[in-house]
Amino acid sequence: MAGQIEARLTELGITLPEAAAPAANYVPYAISGNQVFVSGQVPFVDGKLQFQGKVGTDFSTEEAVQCARICALNILAQVKAACGGDLDRVVRCVKLGGFVNCVDGFGEQPKVINGASDLMVEVLGDKGRHARFAVGTNALPMNVAVEIDAIFEIS
User: Fold this and answer.
1) Each residue of 127-150: pLDDT tens digit?
2) What dihedral do alpha carbons 81, 129, 141, 42 form, nearest 10°?
3) What confidence tens digit (pLDDT) does each residue in 6-24 have?
4) How far apart are CA 109 and CA 107, in angstroms?
5) Angstrom distance (rounded) from CA 43 to CA 59
6) Can you give the residue range of the structural domain that contains 58?
7) Domain containing 64 — which CATH number?
8) What are phi and psi of 2, to 5 degrees?
9) The pTM is what?
């Protein structure tokens, strides 16, 4: 029988991807006590990198919101792996950290990272409400438009 979070994903028509392997010398997540620290997730879809470029020239704010949503799906995939496949172990999403690869003068980073924040609340309900930061930068690894990391509390 599927858990409550899996049922919610099904209701929303969302299929989580497989948790991606790290791209360098780090782990995709680390568990310390009852917290899961998820390494920065980028917009991989079916093993292919999406959204390479800058927000403000290559992508609109609305497109970047979709990019952040993909990052959030990849975060949930890592949390699922950390929880042995049982997302019902999630007590809450504690914090998201969002980085937006953007042009000078771009100021809509919070709106972009809402793509991830909104997904957490859609999927986890009140457990998805979290603290967060959203900052702009001149470059991100592999020239992706968005990268997001996360901290979750689990049981």
Assistant:
1) 999 999 999 999 999 999 999 999
2) 50
3) 999 999 999 999 999 998 9
4) 6
5) 14
6) 4-154
7) 3.30.1330.40
8) -70, 145
9) 0.97
